[in-house]
Design a protein that fits this description.
With 269 residues, the chain is mainly alpha-helical. It has helices at 2-30, 35-48, 87-101, 107-116, 124-145, 153-174, 179-199, 206-212, 220-231, 235-263; strands spanning 53-58, 62-69, 72-79. The chain is elongated and about 85 Å long.
């Protein structure tokens, strides 16, 4: 009976190790980490917790983790659902793995720490203000590149358009709208607000305002991750992320074109 209980305990421990490795990899993939990092962290965590081997297969919307311990193997399959970019989750998961490697956390402590990790998010109004300021700065730089020094109305209009669009984007994301619909609607709002600068003569350089206010829709991080994944050999996830980034760009372009059609403003084309 003692040997049977010991074998059952080892099997339960291996099952928990497999689950934690899969949870780690999924958390990283869901919050914007590249595939190489998600695989490396999960494998190192499994080895630190006592597994002899950890094999991970990453796909566009799922992952498979297999651990081998004392000749026994255990496999877990999990689905990946995008939760949005959040570097706090990524860094906390990596920190958990490092603590496990240093033997500061055992199996139960790792499970508790991973379960306690929650995405930290800034207030919506703060995000909108900072996005508005960043787009306004791009507008200001574009004006300075043209030798225009005294135009502050164009950056102000850019700030208003991008801040309101970001607020709408966050509002739609809160209700779990499809990201493509989210980007299209928010791009329509941003372009519509900036278009009023030309229709009502509020600014002298409406072309810059209309082009700068939609820079927040450039999916830079997904594009970087897509290239990084493909360069490092994760072709499937790289192509998936790249296609999604292109679709987001096309949705944003659709919202911009719809707005320019509605208001009959084709300034920056």
């Amino acid at each position: 009976m003692t040997a049977t209980h010991a074998g059952q305990d080892r099997e339960d421990a291996q099952r928990e190790i497999t689950r934690l490795c899969a949870q780690t990899s999924r958390m990283l993939m869901q919050h914007g980490a590249e595939s190489a990092l998600a695989e490396s962290v999960a494998r190192r965590l499994g080895l630190a917790l006592g597994a002899d081997e950890v094999e991970i297969a990453l796909m566009a919307n799922g992952l498979t983790v297999t651990t081998v311990q004392s000749g026994r193997s255990h496999t877990t399959v999990l689905r990946i659902i995008d939760r949005g970019l959040n570097m706090h989750v990524v860094t906390e998961v990596q920190r958990t793995m490092l603590l496990a490697e240093e033997r500061h956390l055992d199996l139960a402590a790792v499970a508790r720490r991973l379960d306690a990790i929650q995405p930290l998010r800034y207030k919506r109004w703060l995000v909108s203000v900072m996005i508005g300021l960043s787009c306004a700065c791009f507008a200001r730089l574009a004006l300075m590149a043209r030798g225009i020094e005294g135009d502050f109305a164009t950056p102000a209009l850019t700030f208003a358009a991008s801040a309101v669009a970001m607020q709408a984007r966050q509002y739609l994301a809160h209700f779990h709208f499809n990201p493509l619909v989210n980007f299209a609607v928010a791009a329509f709002i941003a372009t519509s607000i900036a278009a009023q600068g030309m229709l009502h003569g509020w600014v002298d350089n409406p072309k810059i305002a209309m082009s700068a206010c939609v820079l927040l829709f450039v999916p830079g991080f997904p594009l970087i991750n897509a290239v990084s994944d493909m360069v490092k050999g994760y072709i499937n996830t790289g192509i998936s992320r790249g296609v999604m980034a292109v679709l987001l760009l096309l949705a944003s372009c659709g919202g911009i074109l719809l707005s320019m059609t509605v208001w009959n403003v084709w300034t920056w084309l």
